Amino acid sequence: MSAAAKARWARIKGTSATDSKPAKKKKRKLSAAHRRKLIKALAKARKMRWAKMKATKAAPKPVKKGKRRMSAAGRAAISAAAKARWAKVKAEGKPTL
């Protein structure tokens, strides 16, 4: 980058061309009165949110259903179907389905 380009860029950024670090922005400070006002507003919002949550009753937990188990006959039927499927594949000479 040429010196002229650096100078233009520095003018745009608000720093001098010789500075290696960019100028830090000043941290904004709130006045004590404004800080109190914000804290009160946040406390009010928090209070309203809690009131809203307590007003609505939590939905009752759904009744948990028992674990579904497969019958021995069902398992045997699935096993027989799988064995038949593989027997058909092997008869055709395919290594996979």
Helix content: 55-70%
Helices and strands: which structural class?
A: mainly alpha
Total beta strands:
0
Give the terminus-to-terminus CA distance. 64 Å
Question: What are the defining features of this structure?
Answer:
97 residues, mainly alpha, 3 helices
Can you tell me about this structure?
With 97 residues, the protein is mostly helical. It is 58% helix and 0% strand. It has a domain at 73-97. The protein has helices at 3-13, 32-55, 72-92. It is flat and about 80 Å long. The mean pLDDT is 85.
SSE inventory with pairings:
Elements: H1 3-13, H2 32-55, H3 72-92
Give a brief outline of the structure.
The protein is mainly alpha-helical. It is 58% helix and 0% strand. The protein has a domain of 25 residues.
